[in-house]
Amino acid sequence: DTEVTQTPKHLVMGMTNKKSLKCEQHMGHRAMYWYKQKAKKPPELMFVYSYEKLSINESVPSRFSPECPNSSLLNLHLHALQPEDSALYLCASSRPGLAGQETQYFGPGTRLLVL
Amino acid sequence: AQSVTQLDSHVSVSEGTPVLLRCNYSSSYSPSLFWYVQHPNKGLQLLLKYTSAATLVKGINGFEAEFKKSETSFHLTKPSAHMSDAAEYFCVGGAGSYQLTFGKGTKLSVIP
Predict the structure, then answer these.
(1) Is the pLDDT of residue A69 over 80?
(2) Do B98 and A33 touch (CB under 8 A)?
(3) B98, A31: Cβ pair inside 8 Å?
(4) Which of A20, A33, B12, B97 could form an S-S bond across to A99 if both were Cys, CB 3.0 to 4.6 Å?
């Protein structure tokens, strides 16, 4: 089973709202990722958690706040977003491996619209 | 540093004809290379992965890719296109711990 699940599928929020995106995997993977994907572009890495610790933060604005409560769950808390943050947010996971050889498995994404 | 270049932003084929999606890579070391497919409003699905075990890599749904070091290429092929193959395809390189380098993507259209 190589399934990563994400909820919700779609989210519409105002610029003053607080919302959260959720990602879950039960493959025993110890690395989990958040990506942002704008239309007609490849995904851009936002955050990486390795063994539940934040390993990479690609200079993402503080209005995005990741959380990894346990090895199966990854959240992305959203607050005071801007319309330009509207995008498809993808979660991925991988098992530990040689650097550059980890295979990342992606979830279906959350389509976010900020009004 | 590794980079990947997808040579075509859009490829159009007729149903039942072969598919060729081109990808070149540049790397100062032996790379890991992947092909992912993304259908509209969906996540990315792994098609296949190269990690130096074999130069011809077979993937899902009849796709395969051949790693050619002399040409620094990793082109994706399929003998016969199906309507369901219409999607965006990404050639991706392993760029270090947890990091991937994405090509810009190739949109495949399949004409009935």
Answers:
(1) yes
(2) yes
(3) yes
(4) B97
* Rounded-to-integer distance, Cα A25 and Cα A6, Å: 9
Contact with chain B for residue A57, Cβ under 8 A: no
CA–CA gap between residue B2 and residue A114 (Å, rounded) = 34
CA distance B67 to B87: 22
Per-residue model confidence (pLDDT) at position B1 = 60
Rounded Cα–Cα distance for residues B94 and B3 (Å): 9
| Confidence (pLDDT) at B51 | 80
Encoded tokens for A46:
């936002």
Q: DSSP string spanning B32-60?
A: PEEEEEE-TT--EEEEEEE-SS-SEEE-G
Judging contacts by C-beta atoms under 8 Å, the chain B residues touching residue A92 are: 44
Average pLDDT, chain A: 93
Is B9's Cβ below 8 Å from some Cβ in A? no
Interface test mutation site (partner A, options B28, B32, B37, B97, max chain A beta carbons within 10 A): B97
- Overall average pLDDT of the B21-46 stretch: 89
